[in-house]
Every structure is written in C-alpha cells, then in structure tokens.
Amino acid sequence: MSFNSFGHLFRVTTWGESHGPALGATVDGCPPGIALTEADIQPWLDRRKPGQNRFTTQRREADAVEILSGVYEGKTTGTPIQLLIRNTDQRSKDYSEIAKTFRPGHADITYHQKYGIRDPRGGGRSSARETAARVAAGGVARQVLAQLLPDLIITGYMVQMGPRRIDRTRFAWGTIAENPFWSPDAATADLWADDLDALRKAGNSVGAVIEVTARGVPAGLGAPIYAKLDSELASAMMTINAVKGVEIGAGFGAAALTGVENADEIFMGNEGKPVYSSNHAGGILGGISSGQDVVVRFAVKPTSSILTPRASVTTDGQNTEVVTKGRHDPCVGIRAVPVGEAMMACVLLDQLMLHRAQMGDTPGGMIG
Amino acid sequence: MSFNSFGHLFRVTTWGESHGPALGATVDGCPPGIALTEADIQPWLDRRKPGQNRFTTQRREADAVEILSGVYEGKTTGTPIQLLIRNTDQRSKDYSEIAKTFRPGHADITYHQKYGIRDPRGGGRSSARETAARVAAGGVARQVLAQLLPDLIITGYMVQMGPRRIDRTRFAWGTIAENPFWSPDAATADLWADDLDALRKAGNSVGAVIEVTARGVPAGLGAPIYAKLDSELASAMMTINAVKGVEIGAGFGAAALTGVENADEIFMGNEGKPVYSSNHAGGILGGISSGQDVVVRFAVKPTSSILTPRASVTTDGQNTEVVTKGRHDPCVGIRAVPVGEAMMACVLLDQLMLHRAQMGDTPGGMIG
Amino acid sequence: MSFNSFGHLFRVTTWGESHGPALGATVDGCPPGIALTEADIQPWLDRRKPGQNRFTTQRREADAVEILSGVYEGKTTGTPIQLLIRNTDQRSKDYSEIAKTFRPGHADITYHQKYGIRDPRGGGRSSARETAARVAAGGVARQVLAQLLPDLIITGYMVQMGPRRIDRTRFAWGTIAENPFWSPDAATADLWADDLDALRKAGNSVGAVIEVTARGVPAGLGAPIYAKLDSELASAMMTINAVKGVEIGAGFGAAALTGVENADEIFMGNEGKPVYSSNHAGGILGGISSGQDVVVRFAVKPTSSILTPRASVTTDGQNTEVVTKGRHDPCVGIRAVPVGEAMMACVLLDQLMLHRAQMGDTPGGMIG
Amino acid sequence: MSFNSFGHLFRVTTWGESHGPALGATVDGCPPGIALTEADIQPWLDRRKPGQNRFTTQRREADAVEILSGVYEGKTTGTPIQLLIRNTDQRSKDYSEIAKTFRPGHADITYHQKYGIRDPRGGGRSSARETAARVAAGGVARQVLAQLLPDLIITGYMVQMGPRRIDRTRFAWGTIAENPFWSPDAATADLWADDLDALRKAGNSVGAVIEVTARGVPAGLGAPIYAKLDSELASAMMTINAVKGVEIGAGFGAAALTGVENADEIFMGNEGKPVYSSNHAGGILGGISSGQDVVVRFAVKPTSSILTPRASVTTDGQNTEVVTKGRHDPCVGIRAVPVGEAMMACVLLDQLMLHRAQMGDTPGGMIG
User: How far apart are the first and last CA of chain D?
Assistant: First the structure.
C-alpha cells in the first residue's frame, strides 16, 4: 500500500523521484477565486532549495515550479492544481553498486523488503527531494490562508542541533531569516556553524529539533477524538523524511510536570477573549485549538548517507561496508524547517475547511 | 468536523460519552472466520478498568463488553462488529456549576469554543472513558493478529512518571504485570508509589511516559510517504487523551546523535535474516518496518482535574477559581498503557491488511 | 474488505444483522446544537416498518430507536450519535437446512464464496432489515436539513411495479401518503393492489421503480469530477438492497433524445433566478446542482425469496431445489421508498457540508 | 469541495483542463514489479483519441502519454505513477463571449453558480478531455490485471444510439473493433452512421447507451453494504461526463420481472463450479461478484454543444440565445466506450486489492 496523499479536504498528493524527469504535487479542494501565480509559490521553494550555503547539499536545482492546471487568469478555479518541478541536476552515474547494498539507517533495505524493487538513483522516492512538492503545496495553502485568516503567521526555526540547544532568553523572531540555520538565537547559530563544519570534515552528520509556531490560529479548529488537531499535526510532521518524534507544547516535558504546574490558568483579557498564564498545551486542548499559539516540535535524525564506513549487507546476503559519497546534507534538519512550515499551513487550512463544513462561518460558543 | 474513526481497512469507530447509557466501538473490515467471543476481549478491558488500586480513579465500572453483531457461532463473519459497554457508575449529580466554567488544561473550553455546547457530565466525550472502546477494538485486532502473525507480542509499560525514569539496566518483561504501574523496573515502581501517594494527598497529579514495543513485526509493513508506519503510529498515539508527544526508537534523542552513532549497522544473522547492532530506528526505516522491534513512546500530561484551585473564567466571562472534586486518576498515564497497546494492535493489523492488498501474501524482496 | 460507512463528512456507519440482538447506525460529523430526540426520528422509521399492511412482510418489529450518545439535553453536541434498534421478532427456528443451500438471485452464494462463512438467520447482514439503520440516520439528516435548508422537501414514491407504470398526468403529491404503495397516482395504486395480491397467492414476487425528488436544493452542491452529486446519489441508491439501476432526470431516456430535445432552455425568472423550460438534467449539470428539482430513480429487482421452487446447489456441490418459506415482502420496492428518501437526505447534507468547507457560507456566482 | 480522486487502494487522481498546457493522472497504490512502459498505455489512449473518423470531434491531439514517476527500468516500483498528456491542439481564440453565457444542458452555469469563476476555454475542467487521463490510468490497471487475473477480459460497446438499439441476435464480439461505433452488431452500425450524418448536418447531437462486460471476474469481489461492487461501478460510470444512468445486469428491466423470472437458477457445472441459467444479476449478488460475467450499462446524454440555437441567459441576467460552434462530438457516447472500459478496469483492480487485504490470497468458501 502506498498512500501519497494527505489532508481530508485540502488534499495534497505528491509524486516523483529524486532522479526522474520531474516531481510535483496535485492540490485538490482548493477554494476558488484565490490569486495564485508561480511567483506566489516560488519564494517558499527558494527557502528549501539546496546548495544555498555550505551547510546543505551541493546539488544545484532551480526548483522552479510550474502550475499546469487549476488556475485561470491568475485565480484558482476550485479544480485541481498541478504543481510541477523539473529535476535538472540529477547525475547519470552508475548506480549498480548502490543498488546492491543498503545504507544503514536508510530506507534502502525496507523498500527492498517491502517491494522487492527500488529506484536507487539518489534514493528514488525516499529522497528528501520529495519535500519540495510539499513546500509548493504549502505555498498554495498559505495563499488561501492569507485571505481566510489574515492574522495567521507560521514560523519554523531550529531549536537544537546535535546536543546543543538555543538559549530561549535570546529568542528573536527577526533573527530567524538572518542565519543559515533558521535559528532564533544568533549566538547559538554561530556555534552550530562550527559544530557542523567539524562534522562535515569528519564525514559525519547530525540530528536536530525544529519548532513550528502558528500565531493567530482561531479557537475551534480540530476535533475531539481521531481527528484531533494534535494528531493531525503529529501525523503530518512524522511523514517528513528522517523525523523520529513530534511533540505539542510542553510535549515530553509535560511528563515531568504536576497538574498544578501544567495547568495553563485562564483569565479574561482586555479584548473580551481569554488569556492564559502559560502555554504548556501548545495551543491545543482536547484536540481543538484554544486561540493560543499552536506550537509543534519535531526531531530529525542525522543523515544516514555519510562518508564514514558502516557495516551493512548486500542484497545477496553478504556482509559488507558502506560509504556514501555524493552530495548530502550534513544536517537535514536545516532544510526541514520550510517543510515543517508547509505542513503546518496545509494542516491548518484543511482543519479550517473541516470546521467550516460542520459549523459554517458562524462561531461556536463565545465567552462572556 | 468530528471524525471518530481510525484505520483504513481495519476501521474502528468509537462513540459514547462518560455518563450516557453506554459507549462502544464499531469494528469494520475484520477478516472472517476468526474465533471471537466476549471472553476474548474482556481480559484486555479488565487491564484498563478503573478502581483496581488506589492509584486510579475510584469509579466502579464492570466494563463488560457485549458483541451485538458481526459474529456467528463464535466466529467473525466479515461484517461489522458492534462492541457495546454500558456505563453503570455514572452519578446523577448536579452539573450546572461545572457547565458554567472551564478546568484549566482541559477540553472544556475548546469544546465550548468550537461547538457552543458540551455535555458536562464527567467530561462527556472528552472523558478518558472513551478509551475503553479502543481497548475493546484492540482486543478484536489481537484476536486476528494471533492468527495472522502468531509470533507478534505487543507490550506496553511505563518508563517515566513525573521526573523519575526507570533504570533500563533493571528492565524485566516479567515485572510489568506485577505492579500497578506496568513498570518493567520493580524498584522504580516502589518509588512511584510513594511519589503518587504524596501527590494525591496534595490534591495534585502528574505526567508520565509510556513505551509500547511490538516484537515479531514482519519486515515490509508501512509505506514510504504519507502512510508511513511511524506517522500512523504517531497519529494513533496522539489521539489518546492527554498525550502531548510521540517518538519512535531513539526519538528526540536522535537529534543529539551523529550519523555515525545513529546508524544501526547491519549484519547477516544465522537464520538468513539481517540483524542489527542497535535499534535507534525503532524498527522503522523510511516509514516501513525492518523486522526489528517496533518501539513507540508517548508522553501523557498530568490530569487537569485536580483539587488544587486554579484560576479560570466562566462561560459569561468572569474570572473565577476552579477546584475539581470527584473521582479522577492522579496519573492518567497508568491506564494509558493498555490503551497504547490497543492502538498498536489496531495499527499493525491495518497495516498488514494494506500490505496484503498491494503485495498479496507473497513476500517482497528477500535478502540473501 | 467490508466498508459499512457512507458519506464524507456527515458519515453514517451501520451495523447489525437481521436476527442478532440489535442493529443500528453511528452518525458522525453531525453539526451541533440541532434539536434531536427519538421522537424526531421515529416517524421516519414507522414509514419503513414491516407488517403495516398485507403487501409487506408480516414480521412484527416495533423498530423503536434509542439514542445512546451525541445528544445532551435534547440537542446534538457535535459528537457521534449512536442509534440503536433492537430486534424483537427474530424467530429461533432451525437454520441448518437454509445454511446448506443458496437462494437463486440472493446474496447467500456470494457471501459464501467471499467469506466462507455467513449468518443464515434471516439473511444475516444481507437482510433488508439493515435499511432501518439508514432510515434512522436519515432522520437525523432531515433534522439538520430542516434548519440549514428550510425550503427543502424530499419525497419518494413508486412510479412502476412490474410492467405497470403510473400515469404522470394523474400525478398528485398529496396522494403519495394515502396508499400503501407510495403511489402519486391513486388509480394505478389500485391496479397494483390487484397485481400484487395475485403474485403473492402465486408464491411469486415483483420488481419496481422508485423515484425520489428533492425540491428546494440550492444551486452549487456537488463537484465536477469524482464527487459529482449524481455519482454520489448513484452510489447511495445502488447500495440499497436489491437495487439494480439508478438514473438522474431523463436518465436512460436521454439516450434516445437529440441535443435539441435534451437541452433544458434557460430564461430569467421573475425572482432574478434562472428558470428552465424542462428538467431533463434532473437538477444536476456537470455534477453540480442547478437549483432545479433533483430527480433520481432506482430500479428494485423482485424479491428472491419466493415460494415457487427454483433450481439451486448445496454448499457441498449437489443440485437441489429451493423454496423459501417465511415472511418476505412480495415487492421490496414498497419499503425501499423511505429508504431512498433517507439516502437522499444523507447525501444532500453531506454535500452541503462539503460545499461549506470549500466555499464557506458565501454564495458562488450570482446570475444577474 | 472538489474530489478529483477515485478508488480506495488503487487510487487515481486526475487533473488538468481542456486548454491548459497538459492534463494527467496520478496513480497511487499500484503493485510493484509490473512491467510498464508508455507503449503499454498508448494503445488504450489511441482508442479514445479524437479526430479518428467523421463521427468524433475534429480536434487533433496526439494524446501521447509520458510516465514521469513510479517506474524504474520498465517496472513499477510501488510508488506513485504520474501520467502526463500534453494538450497540443488547444486554440487560442477569444473566449470572452463564451464566458458571458451558459450552454443549456452544460456545466457552464453550475460551475458559475458554485465557484463564481470558471475556465471557459474548451469547457475547462468540465471537458470530456479529462477522460483521457482515466484511460491512461486504466491502461496501468489493465497491465496489473493481466498479471493478477490473466483470464479477465473487459469489453465495452455501444448498444443504443438515439432510439435505435442493436439486435442482440446479431451480437458478435469480433465486430466491435471493426466499426467506428464499437457496435457488436454490424448492421446497426451502418444505420447509426446514417443517423449520425443526418444529425450532424442538422447541427444536432444524440445520446447513447454503452455496455461494458467483464468476463473472467473471480467470485468474491465486492462487499455487502456500502462498498458493493455494483455501487462502486455505478459511482465510477456516473462520474463520466454526460452519463445520466447506470444499471447492472437486467437493470431497470428487472423492475418489470417477477421473482420467478428474475431468479438466475444455479446448477453444478462440469468443472465443479456453479453455472447459471441466466444472468439477470449481471454477475453481482448482494454486492459481491458471483463469477458470472459482470455487465454494466450506462446512458450518455446528447452533447449539449450544438449548432442549433437554444434559449439561455447571460452572466448578468439577460435572456439570450446560444449557438455553439467549434469542434464537438455529435455523439459523445462513442468515445465514452474506452472510458467505460478504463473505469471497469480500475474498479476491478481496486476491489481485488481490497479483497486481498481482508482475505489474503486464500479463497473464501468453495462449493462442493
């Protein structure tokens, strides 16, 4: 089984391999009448694009998106939007050796075990290149959200690389776009640069933790049981390549708290809306957004394609050693930041549409 | 929107409130010809049942399951199985005060914000009582799995309560069922007992981390992109009440590792199957099971219903204080253990069915 | 595979067998705040109830519905509504003979071929008794529609029994509820009574055609390609027991028309809305409602359970003859009328919710 | 809402407009290891291709399919297959007049009513050109079915054009491919040629009935209630442009039959399989295939784009007359034949995969 779609009503289906002619996303269910051109999507793709600095893969891809359908005279029509991105820097090298063995920690072996066949060129479908299609789809979602929820701001950033975490007392939104790590803490970004240079030279790689915050999410998105906003976000983030953990608000930290500590106390604010003393809940209670910032974090494992030899086996069952040459990100977490943002955008729009379906445009219960 | 179903082919829909006449689960898609009686399901429910020791809520429920459909002469027929559990210890007290305010950290406020109406009796649909229905459905899944994957063993246990973690050097599978905390480390269980007694007396509660391990999962379950085994598990666990984080294998710990450390090296085992030097991947690579143990952990926040007063607001917008009397678990994580096992069983069966759909009963690629 | 759910957002899952303890429907996704009691649903069930006249099965069932969840203080809460109907007149006779052979034209043989097991008591899951659950769910949908689309009127009626069709020049809406055949043409109803008496005495049965008209459907429901309003209706009606054909508007008659004849010409009406010279389209163009009456017809085959002996085989492969005694409708089409209405109600509400999701409460394009 | 996908496990999503740069289909869930090249798909597209004789539109499209993903070294990999077809003969004429009015009987008006925007170039998404993508996807399904069900033969043909039906006593499978109408009755094909020449000259069009027969369908595909094989087929056929009715086996004719006549009597055949005296059921009983030929018919309305003037209104609410010039099929039913076959192939493969999911490769119940 091979589901390549996500979303219930704002539905994204991605397709394509790392070294095929192209990859892309089909976006179905988009509301009509939304202004949309390639220029609206391209900036988001440019943020994820490889080869922008020495900390990401040196593969050179323009990642230029083409809209093949669903838009007429610059506006969405409500019919499916096909977003196509051509692969231009795939290398036609000999993959026969790579096809015979499995990188430890990589999908190579499980694709083989499941399907009995895999496209070994650049990792085929398992390549993080697939995430370009998500970012393009996220660009469409952002364009719709800009109209439906004009106060919404989605921001991703790195909060940990290897064992080193940011210092939250130095957190500055404005810093995020100013360093190659999307760090909200400039001082830590400098240290990460040193860390990563050392790892790269050692033929090694490293993991990271990304946080995505959505400010301006209205109360009421989500649902109580199996379509909880948090389970939808967990599912969405966990589908990103190399992600091994997802948490909301205090997350795993909540396990160490008491109920007294964890309770985000509620007060009436000046604008007639509830305000909270804290946000351990990460903006979600009982699966439904409360109006506080929605905060999600996800852990990205270190790249498995490394220059250091690791023990493995061949397809015919012989022990061997694998060294992965080629162009690989020493920390895939960096380029996962815009991907996490894109997933947040898609999930929030999907949930907004689901909410409208059940409730219409009318609000649920007001307080006060 | 209000999706109360999970699973693609082994599809479970739960229904019911804490203080209504009954709750239950409709299990659709179950393979036919599987031996199934109430006696096969009841033991799993008994493990989750409240009131079994001083560490869980004192509500007294028999949690007796009735099979209303889908079984003929003790065997499943392939048609939907309705599992009904009557509520017998709901108390007809006055809920009018409770209905006018919101417990901090609880779904009360977001249900109100979304729907403008909520059933305040015992938390209504947001009560953890809903998880009884999941455990019943999980009992059906286990019965099928016992036939299709006879070597599969699913085991849940608590690995952290509050800030105190188990000592993994003392890990013993046999210990888990012998203490009220499902702890694999007896010494830590004793300390937790003291911790929890103190918290309970203080009118407080505490969070926990649960781990669920599935041994004997065949290689090849899952799919590459948006139906990854890990995203399915993340989604499933995150739907359990009070869960705020999910991780697979090394999880958030993987962020701190290098690629050299994280690579689970592969060797050919004596049985002609690959063996691994470690299991940072938690048995899942590229969204597909590798044959190693599948290991999932989830964080449960502390119960928000506590005796300590917390600041809140009323439905008509006045500041107030909330104290929650009544019967509540001081650590909901304890009873989440059998729920996590049930979700694991349902997800694995669903994935096995999806795998059969695409691949038939034939294996994918053998190694060696 | 065994999907027992229909609908995308207003989602109905039915369960239960003819001779089990109960059957029912789980209704998920219902908007909150809708007044709903058993008394709102019961009248629709009473219309479908067996044993009301000599033309339907003499099985005596109260078909009393119980609401087990999703309603608080007489209003829906947005959480799943469990509708339970107990079976009270199942007969504990010996089914061992019936289990060994297959009624020609009945699901007996295919259930056996697919599952290798079937519940032979009263047809088990294949009994038309399952449709009681649909009618109950349709009652919920009607209650929501009464609030969201107050001008909507859904009416089902029989237009053909055996070879005899109604005379449309005598069509009267008021006549439908006044005869046991739901005929809009009283004179034809009298002839059908004679026809059916004769068939019943001969141990035979007969087919029928049912038409369901929805008046007051707003323009814009449905979607262009695979979620067309007509394909959703076709799917819904074709799931009713014994249905072998579905058509919209002119339906199969459109095949014989020219484009000039078939074009429903459009004019501006006095109310600033388009009016049409005819309704060959049955109110649906390109999969989307136009504001004209939505008209669906479906063909019901004759009951396969008849007293006249028919050739068949046994489960162990011997030729035999089958005579079906017991209580069976000589024309199942009669009781399919309220079922068709229920499916129309569920589909329209589901489509209305889907439409709101994409478009909000704002209209699409006005004319003029 | 705008679902552009069909199928549960073999899942096809189509995209694209009549006059955009390209259209296509994303095929998800395809089993791996199936030989597949463009050359396997192209013949099916060539059968649907416009401009092949004087009875179809004179638009000239090569309809050349390109496989962009999901295939490696000539075999499917189990990942999504993107099938792209470029539009080459779209005409850049002035559509401003067309955009201001609505063709009677066409989707123009309802797209406007729903979305408030539409792509008027060649009908945009509502063009029958979308069906090319289905035929391409059906080509993939056929390639899989050839391996999984080698005895399966799917054949579509026209059985009625306007009021004139084929004479079934002259039915010959071999005749179908030998005339431009896919008629199994050569004599009627000649009469249809005269009929259609006359209609075309008169600026008129005509409807048709298509039958699709699948021989060699194994018993057991489908499911009892809402995923019946017949409802899946009804839904699939009803999604094809201009289809207004679908029937299985005797279909609407069954309404006129008695139970004695309609019962397909069963006998044990020489090969140890049941044989039937007739096939009123169209190969489906209780939603599940019986092993008899699966027979589906669908009615196609006459093309609404005709040269004869018809009354209509403008977008700003003025009465007007519409005459549709340009290249249009006088009988869209002709080119619907390969489309109906493609839908049958996709549905059968999807059902086969669903069946394997629940039952594995093992058969259900044998007879004898």
Answer: 49
CA of residue A32 relative to chain centroid, distance: 25
Q: Which uninterrupted H or E stretch holds A300?
A: strand A294-300
Q: Number of H helices and number of E strands within chain B?
A: 7, 18
Residue of A nearest to B130 (CA): A225
- Chain C within 8 Å of B23 (Cβ-Cβ)? yes
Q: Which amino acid is at C95?
A: Y
**What is the rounded CA–CA span in Å between residue A264 and residue A274?**
11
> Is residue A349's pLDDT more than 60?
yes
Which run of H or E residues covers position D320? strand D319-322
Residue C292 neighbours by CB distance under 10 Å: 22
Beta bridge partners of B67: B83
Chain D nearest-CA residue for B30: D358
The chains in contact with chain B, meaning 3 or more Cβ pairs closer than 8 Å, are A, C, D
Read off the pTM. 0.97
CB contact under 8 A, A359 and C79: no
Q: Give me the phi and psi of B193, to 5 degrees please.
A: -60, -45
DSSP three-state, residue B132: helix
Q: Residue D248's closest CA among D237, D256, D261?
A: D237
Q: How far is D184 from D172, CA to CA, in rounded Å?
A: 5
Q: How far is CA C244 from the centre of its chain?
A: 13
Tell whether B312 lies on the interface with A, counting CB pairs under 8 A. Answer: yes
Yes or no, beta carbons of B79 and C30 under 8 Å apart: no
Distance of alpha carbon A279 from the chain centroid: 22
Q: Is D9 on the interface with B (CB under 8 A)?
A: yes
Per-residue pLDDT tens for D8-18? 999 999 999 99
Per residue in B42-95, pLDDT tens?
999 999 887 778 888 777 888 999 999 999 999 999 999 999 999 987 766 778
Set of chain B residues whose Cβ sits within 8 Å of the Cβ of A239? 225-226, 228, 231, 287
**Which helix (H) or strand (E) is C214 found in, with range?**
strand C208-215
Distance CA D137, CA D83 (A): 8
What is the tens place of the pLDDT at every residue in C346-359?
Answer: 999 999 999 999 99
| Distances, alpha carbon B132 to alpha carbons B18, B209, B293, B341, C24, in Å | 10, 20, 26, 12, 20
> How far, in Å, CA of A250 to CA of A102, rounded?
37
User: Which DSSP helix (H) or strand (E) runs through B199?
Assistant: helix B186-201
Token pair, residue A39, equals 């220029």
Bridge partner list, D71: D76
Nearest to D28 among A3, A29, A76 (CB): A3
E strand or H helix at D352, and its extent? helix D333-359
For residue D90, the distance in angstroms to the closest alpha carbon of chain C comes to 21
Q: How far apart are CA C148 and CA C139, in angstroms?
A: 14
**Token code pair at residue A293:** 């910032």
A residues 117..146 contacting B (CB < 8 A): 117, 125-126, 130
ipTM of the complex: 0.96
Task: Identify all chain C residues contacting B2, using CB atoms and an 8 Å cutoff.
Answer: 28-30, 78-80
Max intra-chain CA distance, chain B:
71
Residue of chain B minimizing CA distance to D353: B357
D75 touches chain A (CB under 8 A): yes
- Cα–Cα distance for residue pair A279/A294, rounded to 1 Å: 9
Which residues are CB-contacts of B174 (< 8 A; sequence separation ≥ 6)? none
Q: If you measure CA to CA, which chain B residue comes closest to D29?
A: B358
Neighbours of chain A (3+ CB pairs under 8 A): B, C, D
Please tell me if residue A356 touches chain C, with a CB cutoff of 8 Å: yes
Nearest 10 degrees: Cα torsion C352, C357, C362, C368: -60
Contact C308, C323 (CB under 8 A): yes
The strand pairing partners of D77, in sequence order, are none
